[in-house]
TrEMBL record:
Family annotation (PROSITE patterns): AA_TRANSFER_CLASS_3
Cross-referenced SUPFAM superfamilies: PLP-dependent transferases (SSF53383)
Keywords associated with the record: Aminotransferase, Pyridoxal phosphate, Transferase
Obligatory cofactor(s): pyridoxal 5'-phosphate
NCBIfam families, per database record: PRK07036.1 (NF005447)
GO MF term list: pyridoxal phosphate binding; transaminase activity
Name listed for the protein in its UniProt record: Aspartate aminotransferase family protein
Source organism phylogeny: Bacteria, Pseudomonadati, Pseudomonadota, Gammaproteobacteria, Cellvibrionales
Cited Gene3D superfamilies: Aspartate Aminotransferase, domain 1, Type I PLP-dependent aspartate aminotransferase-like (Major domain)
Family the entry assigns: Belongs to the class-III pyridoxal-phosphate-dependent aminotransferase family.
CDD domains: OAT_like (cd00610)
Length: 452
């Protein structure tokens, strides 16, 4: 392992940087990778050791890092105009052009864009937009939100309240509870015993119907869902689920909010997974991450003309009282435009479809290992679930932190995969080749094999 625990940067890190989502123990004496350089999917640490980053940063380095063209675009925009006030009567060229481009790429009549700083703020905006819209149309009681256990939607107060990953919620905070309801996680691998995928889908749809009946459709404002759950375990819902729930939302006048912070911009082979993969036309779509491939922070809440027409007509004094200093940041928007141009020019979506099929197929071979209970996901969004017993699907004790054991071993062999308790998660740059796939699967397989 190439973790040197004495460098000046390492000491500064341990002493001063409180990292997000990181146990206090790891601020004491554990080594962390002190990264200094990146090119494509390859990262280098302070000692010059290189790694293949199969996590793609945090599901975000879609076009790969270290691209000259991105550096030039960003530098040029900084020279031209590094910042522009987004409020009232001011605009800027990259933000306006990006909004137009996003409207072209987004499904249905999703033609309106509200910029923020990342995925959490995009979700926060969506949450406020739901309230605002329901108020503006004279339905102030429609404020309840449906979401799912296992869903992750971000770290702001509203986003974390909508999040349904119980392990991410801690007793030290009081989340919004009364108006947010978490339905079952649509994980086919963990379906109730004896149910096949179709029965499980029916079960989830029935549960949704029951919740609507219990609360009353006149009280429910929106359903928030990732088309494929990400950090909740890379869960592709059962066939037909997304579309059937969307139909129920339409029937019951409930807004469908697709959290595509991970799934958009090519991760599963499409600009947006909702429509292309699942046949759903959401009312609101949140995105971030792959929007700039992590070159700069940017979030966007895209929403339909139908919503816009309601909120923008009527009371002349009304406005959407929300926004950020960095909404529509010209440099971030210029980076996003260039990022989209690169995805288009290099046909990265088709590449993900093609290489993704190979990635799925190669990863499935890990099922032969005794520790591997499930291999799941779609294209460039995959994970391996490790279990104590493959028949009963019983997990190893959480304290063992098996995912971390495995990822530590993989890291020693030059591969970075993300540990999430029992899982090892992968979301590589869209440029990953078949040769890279072989490297990832071989190294991950060896790490799993040698762990137990
Ligand atoms: N939504 C989803 C599906 C995510 O996976 C994440 C982050 O991983 C977020 C929202 C929050 O995004 P951010 O960390 O940029 O605030």
């Amino acid at each position: 392992m190439s973790k040197v625990m004495s460098s000046e940067s390492w000491q500064a890190d341990k002493r001063h940087w409180m990292h997000p989502w990181t146990h206090f123990d790891s601020f004491k004496d554990e080594g962390s990778l002190m990264l200094t350089r990146a090119k494509g999917a390859r990262l280098w640490d302070e000692q010059g050791t290189s790694y293949f980053d199969a996590v793609g940063g945090l599901w975000c380095t879609n076009i790969g890092l270290g691209r000259e063209e991105m550096a030039e675009t960003i530098a040029e925009q900084v020279r031209e105009m590094a910042y522009a006030n987004p409020f009232v009567d001011m605009s800027n060229v990259p933000a306006a052009q990006l909004a137009k481009k996003l409207a072209e790429l987004a499904p249905g009549d999703v033609n309106r864009v509200f910029y923020s700083c990342g995925g959490s703020t995009a979700i926060d905006t969506a949450f406020r937009l739901v309230h605002f819209y329901q108020n503006c149309r004279g339905k102030p009681a429609k404020k309840h939100i449906l979401a799912r256990k296992g869903g992750y939607h971000g770290s702001t107060y509203a986003a974390m309240s909508i999040t349904g990953k119980s392990g991410d919620k801690i007793p030290e905070f009081d989340y919004i509870q009364d108006t947010i309801h978490h339905l079952s996680c649509p994980n086919p691998y963990r379906a109730p015993a004896g149910m096949d995928e179709q029965q499980f889908c029916d079960f989830l749809v029935d549960e949704f119907k029951q919740k609507v009946a219990e609360l009353g459709a006149d009280k429910i404002g929106a359903f928030f869902a990732e088309p494929i759950l990400g950090s909740g375990g890379v869960i592709v819902p059962p066939e037909g689920y997304n579309c059937r729930i969307w139909e129920l939302c339409q029937e019951n006048d409930i807004l469908f909010v697709a959290d595509e912070v991970v799934t958009a911009f090519g991760r599963v082979g499409h600009w947006f997974a909702s429509e292309d993969l699942f046949g759903v036309q959401p009312d609101i779509i949140t995105c971030a991450k792959g929007l700039t491939s992590g070159y700069l922070p940017l979030g966007a809440t895209l929403f339909s003309d139908r919503i816009y027409d309601v909120i923008a007509t009527g009371d002349a004094d009304r406005y959407f009282a929300s926004g950020y200093t960095y909404s529509g940041h010209p440099v971030a928007c210029a980076a996003a435009l260039k990022n989209i141009e690169i995805i288009e020019r290099e046909n990265l979506l088709s590449r993900v479809v093609e290489v993704g099929a190979y990635f799925e197929q190669r990863l499935q071979t890990l099922r032969d290992l005794p520790l591997v209970g499930d291999v799941r996901g779609k294209r460039f969004m995959m994970c391996v679930e490790n279990v104590a017993d493959r028949n009963t699907k019983q997990l190893l004790p959480d304290e063992l932190n098996i995912g971390k054991w495995i990822s530590d071993r993989a890291e020693q062999n030059g591969l970075i995969v993300r540990p999430i308790v029992h899982l090892n998660v992968m979301s590589p740059p869209l440029t990953m080749s078949r040769k890279d796939v072989d490297f990832v699967v071989d190294k991950l397989g060896a790490a799993i094999e040698h762990t137990y």
